[in-house]
Amino acid sequence: MEDITEIIDIDNSEFEVFTPDEDNYSEGSIKVLEGLEAVRKRPAMYIGDIGERGLHHLIQEVVDNSIDEALAGFCKNIIVKLHKDGGCSVQDDGRGIPTGPHPVKQISTLEVVMCTLHAGGKFDKNSYKVSGGLHGVGVSCVNALSSFVEVIVEREGKKYRQTYSEGIPTISVQEIGDSERTGTYVYFRPDATIFKTVEFKFQRTADRLRELAFLNQAITITTIDEREGYEEVFHYQGGLRDFVEYVDSGEKTLTKPVYIAGEDVNEAGSRTQVEICFQYNSNYSENVLSYVNNINTIEGGTHVSGFRSALTRTLNNYVNNVVKKNKLQLTGDDFREGLTAIISVKVPEPQFEGQTKTKLGNGEIEGIVRAIVNDKLTQFLDSNPNDAKKIVEKALLAAEARIESRKKKELIRRKGALESSTLPGKLADCSMNTPEDCEIYIVEGDSAGGSAKQGRDRRFQAILPLKGKILNVQKARVHKMLENDEVKAIFTALGTSYGEDFDITKLRYGKVILMADADVDGSHIRTLLMTLFFNYMKELILNGNLYIAQPPLYKLKKGKTELYAFNDAERDEIIERLRKDNVKTKTVVVVDEEQINEGEGEEISVRRDGIIISRFKGLGEMNPEQLWSTTMNPDTRTLLQVSIGEAAQATLVFQTLMGDKVEPRRDFIEKNAQYVKNLDV
Predict the structure, then answer these.
(1) What tens digit of pLDDT does each residue of 67-88 get?
(2) Is position 59 within any domain?
């Protein structure tokens, strides 16, 4: 019988109930996890996972406290530093965490904040009108999952310090001197026994901090990587205007940014602040980035629906009352083609829902946003007739394309979730009919598709080979996209439709796996495919269904031993291991390098110290047995799950790489080329 574990949160203690065997269930089965012990016991419950994403979430939790001080008007500067010893520090010039005795706990308030879950000023409406902490676990969770933490507080003319290990204070709060400034400094070193990796990524950290600087124009955020000597300062006086221009930097824009701001005060005195900026570009997809109290609401919510309905209504009124010559019935989709928008709302008590708990559910926010956008956008259209004309012309072209694509759209609609009569002919489907147990490989090329079809497990693995590169959907309207046979085959095979009609409940496979060669062409094909999924089936990524296969780059052969390496580091490690084995067995080795032909379908190999090293040309050059054992066997393969870490940065990358402008694409490649190793050997 499978073990069942239930966590019950009661008054900052957690009771872990184990019922592996009903006969042994007794008083002794109840274990009390005191203080932060529960966080260390089940860290993924509090930070999402213990991989790279969870690791960087620790930085976010600490920075959120500083951002909340900024939202309250008490902080202007934040410094985030990645240290050489593997730690991270966050320093701000806010009010500083209170250090005096807590009225209930009767210990230093600093210690209460650092060592108690759900303790902090965010729960007191007089301290913070709005706050950005999503889960309410805050810095105490960071403390629990760190091997060492140091906090220095400056307030009321004094400087205080306390240190911790694994969430437990190692010294009491100490007064260590005088200070004329105020603020909080938090240094933490993640616990290597908890996390799969404890190496912070500078770029990942910087992307989130840049986003926060855009959303809070009064703040200056400095991020420093002491390990590599990097430093970036983020301060955007233009706020959301700068944000929109940054996201659209790879596109040809049609209008100037439209900036909208307003607030609503309810009867209880609570203020909801609305800030929106949008513009149109020459592309055909819609990019809306939405935030609530600085939290990226990837799944949207009532603030997004309020904006969309107001945009449609206001622009339709303008067309009907001012343009008047229009004979087409324009829809919301027409007005959103080529739209890039940033929506930021500050809500006193946000309610989140959805797959990732990042969808705003407050019903009243929709009406607030709609009213503000209706009013401000009408003023903009009346005052800027040239921009208004460009918006209407863009929508009219979109309407014509929509009408043209209406019939083509029916080609990808499915009659039933598992009905095979509508499936593309080149799809080799699996025999099982339970989607959660099935997976589909979208494979580059007929040759690789043939090997994959022979090597797969036919029970649960389906193969869809693609011929050549699919259309770049970033630069094509929907009707052109639907004319592409490879795109139609993908939509039909998955069964979900796309865009507004996307329905994840009709997904025919639990895993959608992209499998392409590990070379420049393969990378381009993967990028084209991910552009398709990002623009038209984003929920599939958010739901965790999209993966990238990791075929090996090398085969190493010594006698009858064959090993595979997925990168140069693994190759060198295997070579060194085989060399040591040679020494142990006193084998005479060949010390020179000699080019030979070894194995069908492999490039010219190299013999080094008696080891034959072969670099695979591509998937199609691997025989079915090799492809199965290295790339498709669930027991031995490696899959990369595709996720959207920072939506703004993901949008920028896709628009830069796949958009119209050449110069930003060249700059991006030149800037990031130093981080790419062995793209093609």
Answers:
(1) 989 988 899 999 999 999 999 9
(2) yes
